[in-house]
Specification:
It comes from Leptolyngbya boryana NIES-2135. With 175 residues, this protein is mostly beta strands. It has a single domain, classed as Beta Barrel (Porin). Helices cover 14% and strands 50% of the residues. Strands 1-2-3-4-5-6-7-8 form an eight-stranded antiparallel β-barrel. A hairpin with a 4-residue loop joins strand 3 and strand 4. It is elongated.
Length: 175
């Protein structure tokens, strides 16, 4: 896996900005209550990288995302669909969930992205690839969840070996 210093610095800075307020909030409460609900939601998704060749430009679109909380375990099974006008990618994944504040988790995990049309731009590159993710989710009111995450596709562009980075956010309904 070949990561450029710029990619690593961007991902590190983005993760620190997104997650730092949660750790401060989590330190204030002695025992955070883990959000353990399952949900399905929808929102926006932005691919912010490109592979440097045709049909791999950064794209903007939507996402449908779901979480199934594994009972009595700090892990979840997740599924995401990122889509734009030309392509989509389906990403099943497994994450480790860490409570940081009341009904708020941060999570990190791994999965695999299946691109519908190889060679066409999606938020996660233009070919199937392993995907790492880091994110946050919180039940803001009874039954309503907000979520945001960053997904990194490893070697996600045909012919260039470049990785992809996509940011997602949305609102979900707990079930």
């Amino acid at each position: 896996m070949k990561l450029s210093l710029k990619s690593v610095a961007t991902l590190s800075a983005l993760s620190a900005l997104v997650l730092s307020p949660l750790f401060v909030a989590g330190a204030a409460s002695a025992q955070p209550v883990r959000f353990d609900g399952s949900y399905v939601g929808a929102g926006v998704a932005a691919g912010i990288t490109n592979g440097g060749r045709d049909n791999d430009a950064a794209t903007f679109g939507g996402n449908i995302q779901g979480r199934f909380a594994v009972p009595n375990a700090p892990v979840s099974v997740r599924g995401s669909v990122l889509f734009n006008g030309n392509n989509s990618v389906i990403i099943p994944s497994l994450t480790y969930d860490l409570p940081v504040a009341k009904n708020t988790n941060v999570y990190a995990g791994a999965g695999y992205g299946f691109v519908q049309k190889d060679g066409q731009a999606s938020q996660m590159g233009n070919k199937d690839a392993a995907v790492l993710s880091v994110g946050v989710e919180s039940e803001v009111t009874r039954g309503v969840v907000v979520y945001s995450d960053a997904k990194y596709g490893i070697n996600a562009y045909q012919g260039s070996g470049a990785g992809s980075l996509s940011l997602q956010g949305g609102v979900g309904i707990r079930f």
